[in-house]
Amino acid sequence: MECSKKINMYKKHILTFLFYCLINIQFGYSQDLINFTLKGKISHAIDSTALKGTTLLNLTTTDGTLANDKGLFELDVKENDTLMISNLGFESIKLKITRDLSKGTELDIALYPKVESLDEIVIGYKLIGVLDIDIKKVPKDKFNRVHINGLPQTYEVQKSGSKSLSTTSNILKSVMNPVDGIYNLFGKKPKRLEKIKELKNKDATRNILTSRFDREIILDYLEMDINQLTEVLNECNYSPYFISKATDLQLIEAVLECYENHKAVKKGSTFKEKVTK
Question: Which of 9, 44, 67, 276 could bridge to 54 as Cys pair (CB 3.0-4.6 Å)?
C-alpha cells in the first residue's frame, strides 16, 4: 500500500511539473512574438498600376487600413496575425504575418482580377473539353493560377467557393431556422462574436465597411456563403432591397441585431422584433 501511495504521489508531482513547463513554454512563446509596422504597396498583377483604396484588415485584431492613391499602406501588426487584403473586382488574399516580414523590407503585393463570364474564349492550347485533363495542359504560376494566351484575365484552378462546407454551413443544414446557425456559431465561438462587434465599433473598420459592398469580410467571420447569409437576413425580415444595397457595415449591424433578437426569443424573455428595412 505504501509503495502504491508513493508511486501515485510521484505521478502527481511529475504531472504538476509538466503542466508548469507547458505554461512557461506557452507564456514565453507569446512574449517573444514581435510587434511591428507592416509597409508596402498594392498593385494590379497584370499592368502593375497602383490599386488605391485596397482594404487591409487584420482578422486577428480587427484593425484595418486603406491603401492610398499610390497603393501604399502602413499597418501595425503582430507575428502570427492574419491579414485579409481585398479590392472590389479583384481576388482577395490572406497573408500570415511571419517574423521574416518584420525585417524592414516593404511588401509588393499584386492582386489578380476576378474572373467574370466571357462570351467567347480562344485558347492557344489543344484542349479536349475535359477539365481534369485540359487543366494539366495549361501553364500555371506558383500560385496555381492558370494563364491563357491572349487574355488579360487569370484563372484559378480551384475557387474559394468550392471548398468543403464550413462549420456554419453544416449547422445551417441541420436546423430548420437559418438564424440558429448564427446562434450556434457564436455560442461555440464567443470570440467570433466579440470580433464582429469590434468591426462595428472601431472607427477605422467602420470607415472601411461603410464603403464596401462585397460581403467578403462578414462572410469570412461568419464562415458562410452569400446564400446562407441571405437566408439568415430573410428570416429576420430584412427586405431583398436592403440585403442587396446595404453597406457591409449595415449588414454587420443587421446580423448582430438578428442574433440579439433570436437569443432573446431562445431565452423566452421577449418576442422577435419586426425589422422593416
Answer: 67
